[in-house]
Please model this.
Amino acid sequence: MRRREFIALIAGAAGAWPFTTAKFALAQRRSKVPRVGVLWPGSPPDKWDEAFRQGLNALGYTEGRNILLDYRWAEGKQERLPELAQELVHLNIDLIVTISAPAIFAAKQATETIPVVFAGTSDPVRSGFVASLARPGGNLTGLSLMAPDLAAKRLELIKSVAPAASRVAMLWNASDEGMAIRVKQAELAAPALQLTLLSPELRSPADFDSAFTALTRDPPDALLTFVDPFTMRHRTRIIEFAATARLPAIYEDRIFADAGGLMSYGPSVLDNCRRAATYVDKILKGAKPADLPVEQPTKFELVINLKTAKTLGLTIPPSLLAHADEVIE
Model:
């Protein structure tokens, strides 16, 4: 009798064990504060990071209370990204947020299981980050900065303020695959606008001196700068060169126009960084990156710095001013 009672007791406890364990695990998950790794190519303080935090706050997240953020900053040194991505993976984080093709590639190489949200890249499909925009298919998803005819539109804007322009120099990070995609688009658009594009090599800060010397010796008629963390970091240098060489210049991001560049046209990277928080929120609530479509830009900003135009002796067509989202005077 005692033996049968003992066996029954053990059987009952064994039956209850999975249920008790499951309840404990569920309670742990509910009480756990999510830990998000943030891999930024630049250095703090950073406007992109500020925008991302704004997005989190708008969704009810407060760092230290209901979300933990582990930062790794590459400080403009692209070669550090793989090591930094590995560091985040080893912290047992729930998710990684990043931006730019080199940083996204580093995160992709570091993990095939931890969700990765990218706040911006040129063409995530051609870069191999996702299988398709509608169905990413892996552990990566986020927001694209690519849209049809963007390069052609920027070149058209250059022609509208400098109708006689025939040679446009492109400044871009040649070690960033995402920038190479955008440059190719510009090259395809140039013949229809009767433009010849120049492409001095930029891979490190030291290359600016040789590039600017070459462009001073053989001046172009205008300047087009493709924006990634590298050119963003050196924006003051680029803007000052354009001013000294008295070149009409267009940039992809309004941060350049705000800093004294002539004009910018493109999707807002800051808005992308804010919206990246919505992907973080969905994934932390159980969504799978593979099922979250990559968002393409739908709103584009034209910002014109009228003060810079006057300094360069340029007259901005009234029709262009009328279409500007913002005119800086």
User: Anything to note?
Assistant: The CA atoms of residues 26 and 139 lie 23 Å apart. Residues 32-146+269-291 form a domain with the Rossmann fold fold (CATH 3.40.50.2300). Confidence is low (pLDDT under 50) at residues 6-11, 13-30. The longest helix spans residues 2-31.
